[in-house]
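@channel sequence for tomorrow's demo:
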Amino acid sequence: MRSLKNLQLETMVLGMVSTNCYLARNRKTGEILIFDPADQADHIVRKISGLGGTPTAILLTHGHFDHIGAAAELKEHYQIPICALEQEREVLEDAQKNLTRWNGTGYTLRADRFFQNGERVTLAGFAITVLHTPGHTIGSTSYYIPDEQVLFSGDTLFHCSVGRTDFPTGSMSALHRSLHETLFSLPDETDVFPGHDAATTIHYEKLYNPY
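structure tokens (generated this afternoon):
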């Protein structure tokens, strides 16, 4: 992995299925983005306190229970918005589709801000391109930060694998298109930080990912 320019990245592995929650801190401003707060809000708060900085938004790659478990509590604690792609609204707001019924809790989540595919947003001082990468869910999203050459891919792209497509709103054909038409068109040197398991690069996945 390259040394990132202005982005200080902290990774926490949280929850019953070992989900990667990322804290992206801007070294210049101290602002922090929270990607996929999976669980254990108190642990995330302690980590943020140790980093020293101010959270400005929660970004969701998709609406499954193992990526949203601490979102509502962190929103309330920091008074910051929850952000997701517009197409993922139906998953977030349906306890069957977001799999919270599957894990025995059964709750929904409302986002405060919905992005559109291809939208360029500035959050925590980072210029972020929002990429609609459906397949794992209908509104799965990847967040690309060109200046840092970093991608947060959620459960669309893993190290030598991809996310499951047998859950509600999943589609293998859509996932295949997301990989080949969207993610694999990014620069080879892009570092990929997925929703589970180890980080990788676009170059490595183009060479070795069987999908």
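heads up for whoever presents: The two ends are 23 Å apart (CA to CA).
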